[in-house]
Amino acid sequence: MEEIVCDGIFKDYGGKTSIRALDQIDLKVSNGEFFGLLGPNGAGKTTLVRILATLLKASGGCAWVGGYDVNKDEKKVREIIGYAGQDSERSAYFRLSIRENLFYFAHALRDVPKEIAKERIEYIASAIGFENKLDRHFISLSGGEKQVVIVMRAILHNPEVCFLDEPSKSLDPITARRVRCFLKDYAKDNNITICLTTHNMLEVEEVCDRIAFINRGRVIFVGTPLEFKRQAVMREIIEISTNRLGNDLSLKLLKVHGILNVTCQNNTTKLYCEDAFNALPEVVNVMREAGLKVPVRIAEPSLEDAFAFFVNGGKRDEGH
Amino acid sequence: MKGINSLKIFYMAVWRNFLTLTRYKVNFLFSIVTSALWGVGMLLFSLAFDSLMLERTVGTTNYVAFIIFGISFQCWQGTALWGASSMLQGELGSGQIDYTFTCPFSRYQYIVSNVAALAVQDSLFFLPMFCIGLWLANTTLTIQGFLLGLASTFLSVAALVQLGVIFAALTLRYRQINAIFSFFNFIIQMLSGMFIPMQILPIPLQIIGFSIPVTFGMDLLRHYIMGTFTILSPIYEWVVLIAQLALLSMIAKFTVSYLEDKAKEEGLHYI
Predict the structure, then answer these.
(1) Which of A46, A72, B15, B238 is spaced 20 to 30 Å from B52 by Cα?
(2) Is residue A170 within 8 angstroms of chain B, CB to CB?
(3) pLDDT tens-digit profile of B142-190?
(4) Cβ proximity of A7 and A61 under 8 Å
(5) Chain A, 171-230: which have a CB under 8 Å from a chain B CB?
(6) Cβ distance B80 to B163 under 8 Å?
(7) Any idea which of A121-125, A202-206, B91-95, B178-182 has the lowest mean pLDDT?
């Protein structure tokens, strides 16, 4: 069964000088799926999530969450969703403890019975490693810790569909990993459909069953993270662990049979080629002759490569 | 999921407010002391006030009690009018409104429940001053009068809350409404008989004053507790109060729903 359906959604902001934030969005997310929304800043991910979470009105098109129309059955949609907005780490009561905050939101605003709310707070806190922080005032938490509380709040009432807008933005890598592992398991155990926006490619690879890539308000890819990488980077890559090859050596490598392009990114040099396995021995020879002994390997295209590919409108980011 | 009722939001908001209050202990203490201080401080005004004029117009020479009830009323008036929009401004600023507005209850219900919880909280600060007023009016005070006075106050504050809900809805649309609020606040304070008896105001100003929900609520409170004359017959004043409450409730519900819709077109988070 499809939990989220978008049919031709578009959204314009402003009056005379209106900006089209979303343009003909068609999307389907299945029940229990962990779905990622990817795209560069300003692509329209948050706008789409806000429309689905009944916070924003689409200018046209239709959308359904859990079978309910987000425009006509707002209240029904709100009964089955959870939501953690972007930059919402200040959005709780500063002088209440984490426990009191979560209890208030779950019991008063989400109608979770008292005892169940208390049990779930304990359970989720211990799964995330927050059991010793529950009685700390919200104001005394770090930005990342506050963000974790906001994520906990979003799932505390076991929603059918949960929208998380960049939930790991201010989290350190260890906490981020713990939170996403917990979310993945919790969503699976409780059959929660999760719709997540993120720029964290590791997060996408680890938790997302499928993703949609949005650029300039349009969905330009829908599929699994693996399909995303494959569709974007159809060439193979040889990776050399240095970015100090110099022009001469770069030119020599370009002359190796099968090498199509050479790029430098961070501390690595990437050689794009048709057949990495065949080109590798000759590349190693060129390096040896140049007296450069650094690790050389065949690399898998990364999600970042694919991301850059789609942001550039399908043109490969191979030059520099 | 069964529907979330206003009563639950109300008592949980009272719980939340009191927890927060007790965590600012010094501030809490000073608020109580200041309230009592205002009550006693009003004695100074009586030195310079024409008590004969007061007796002529409202039938009492007890200016101190007269003005104490006016100021006590102002405590609730501030909460009723301003509480909802300052709560929504806070939620808009912190981003909490995104969460609360994805919860399954009516916005009107949420705003009214939270303002009612604020009114309960503010009653604590209003109590010391109110008690001093009662003590100064002890010669005219009866149990029945006290209860009727409270009932009229309740109706009047409930009508004010509806006005506050309208301001809150304006916050959703226009974000900054301090100037609009100050404008109405001035009119309410000056033309409702809070500090100056209505009877000495020029007729056009009296007509404006009659449309303010505070006017008859406070007039009835003073009448039942201090034995003052009423502006109109008490029964008319009750009828007007109830009508004001009904009318403002309808306008408030409509305004919230209309302006929320408008705000949703732009996105509530643009502040």
Answers:
(1) B238
(2) no
(3) 888 889 988 998 898 888 889 888 888 887 777 677 777 778 878 887 8
(4) yes
(5) none
(6) yes
(7) B178-182
Instruction: Single out the residue of B262, B58, B239, B259 nearest to residue B159, CA to CA.
Output: B239
Q: How far apart are CA B212 and CA B238, in angstroms?
A: 13
Q: Is A71 on the interface with B (CB under 8 A)?
A: no
CA separation for the pair B49, B229 (Å, rounded): 19
Inform me whether the pLDDT recorded for A243 exceeds 80: no
CA distance A27 to A83: 19
What is the per-residue pLDDT for B270? 45
For A21-38, give the DSSP string.
EEEEEEEEEETT-EEEEE
How close does chain A come to B68, measured CA to CA in Å?
33
Tokens representing residue A64 in the block: 């359904």
Contact of B200 with B57, CB cutoff 8 Å:
yes
Distance (Å, rounded) from C-alpha A265 to C-alpha B213? 69
Q: How far apart are CA B85 and CA B181, in angstroms?
A: 10
- What 8-state DSSP symbol labels residue B131? H
Q: Which of A71-85, A298-312, B109-123, B202-216 has the lowest mean pLDDT?
A: A298-312
Q: Which of A79, A153, A161 is the best residue to mutate to test the B interface, defined by the most B CB atoms within 10 Å of its own CB?
A: A79
Q: How far is A206 from chain B (nearest CA, A)?
A: 27
Instruction: Report how far Cα B144 is from the mean position of its chain's Cα atoms.
Output: 23
Strand partners, A299: A237
Res. A208 pLDDT band, cuts 50 70 90? very high
- A320 pLDDT above the threshold of 60: no
Residue B34 structure tokens: 């200041």
Phi, psi of B41 (to 5 degrees): -60, -25
Interface contact flag, A104 B16, Cβ < 8 Å: yes
| CA-based torsion, A213, A218, A221, A223: positive or negative | positive
Q: At what angle do helices A276-289 and A246-255 cross, to 10 degrees?
A: 140
In angstroms, what CA-CA distances link B268 with A48, A88, A157, B44? Answer: 14, 13, 24, 48
Contacts of B259 in chain A (CB under 8 A): none
Beta strands A68-69 and A81-84, pairing class? unpaired
First to last CA, chain A: 46
pLDDT of B36 strictly over 70: yes
